[in-house]
């Protein structure tokens, strides 16, 4: 089943949910919270952070904080902070890119489809569409917030937090479509095919005392009670009962006097009656050893058991083998190599991935912002070509900035619109050199320089295309295009078979690579 991710930017909080393997779950956008505050922070160097990291930076640089983002975008199409103007598209793109990167870390895979919930009364759908494309969400669908609410009310569970209705309702909308308008109908017993019946018990009649205006305490009832005080029949019955009681007591007294003589005779006969059971018990007792001896005599049963006992060792050995194999496989799965400060992604480069403070430096972002963010994370670059023409790359001017083993390509499409680098964007990242096992520079799936072709096949399966573009050369060119994000990733391997290893890997179409 496809993995579907939904993202909802509420007035104050953002939420994300995923529909995978028949389950709908919320995703934790923070270390200890399912939500993320919809807050931006613009630093003095131009770098933009969102969410919890923005709140942290606002403590030291409060002037760059932009809160109530959605509310501000309701009244204006741009937001200004520390002398920098951000369009609605840019602001939403930053939020979506950060949430998307966080969800990829939590899911440990790229979703097949993304649902972006458009806030009711907020920016137009065209702004959300442009922001989603800029955030490199891949295959995305815009969902109106009211549709999410309606689907949540019709198909979702009751009693949920209203703030979660946007993200969860979008997934229910994708499953079931629009919810029915109006409130839910009331279901009666007749709707279920049950016919209402009148009670079969006839109501009891009212008491005679309650009939009419008379009361039981009126004086007219007193003479009747006085006439009933003397009843000779009751006196006679009591006398007869007393006589019978005395006679019975007398008879019982006589019975007790003659009792011992009559009881003594049954006691003499009792031993005779008891003597028979012991004889029977002795016979049974004697028979039991005989039976036991007879059962023990055919010892042929024991060899049969011994013969079958030779089977358990084989069964035990067979059981131990898979247990041992499973035990060996567990450490391989759980002890994955750690991620580094920078993590490669088809959508760009993620800083501090899986830490709760990750930031996606996305392809298409401002060149100045990309350099500022990466410098703040890993330090000053080791190489910088500056702005210069490059025939192998798209754009009038190209700037290559290298951070250790990662090269970042920046492109200025039009050199006539101002100073070099004006409106330049991030168009490609490229990695080669030291194996990723030593630099921790790889993708979330732990694919990087030095990874084997076997690892590529195991991780990306049908999404991997590996060819030998140059005749007579053992090197291979691979591409990963089935992720639904940007143009995927490309790379070069030493061989195309299992012994092959990754030599280079890149994402983005900023510059032509081998074999071009």
Rg on CA atoms, Å: 44 Å
General shape: elongated
Q: Spell out the CATH superfamily of one domain.
A: ATPase, nucleotide binding domain
The average pLDDT value, as a whole number, equals 76
Number of strands: 22
The end-to-end distance, rounded to whole angstroms, is: 38 Å
Q: How many helices does DSSP assign?
A: 14
Strand order of the largest sheet: 15-16-17-18-22-21-20-19
> What is the correct CATH architecture of one domain?
2-Layer Sandwich
Under CATH, the topology of one domain can be stated as: Nucleotidyltransferase, domain 5
- Unreliable sequence segments: 219-227, 256-334, 482-486
What is the structural class?
alpha+beta
Portion in strands: 15-25%
Specify the CATH class of one domain. Alpha Beta
Major sheet: 8 strands, antiparallel
Measured as a percent range, the helix fraction is 25-40%
Keywords:
single chain, 516 residues, 8-stranded antiparallel beta sheet, 14 helices, 20% strand, elongated
Structure description:
- This protein has 516 residues and is an alpha+beta fold.
- Among the domains are: 4-176, 2-Layer Sandwich (Nucleotidyltransferase, domain 5); 342-507, no CATH class.
- The chain has 14 helices and 22 strands.
- The strands form five sheets. Strands 15-16-17-18-22-21-20-19 form an eight-stranded antiparallel β-sheet, with helices on one face. Strands 1, 2, 3, 4, 10 and 11 form a six-stranded mixed β-sheet that branches.
- β1 (4-9) and β2 form a beta hairpin.
- α3 crosses α4 (125-134) and α5 packs across α6.
- The longest helix has 38 residues, at 259-296.
- Mean pLDDT is 76; it is low at 219-227, 256-334 and 482-486.
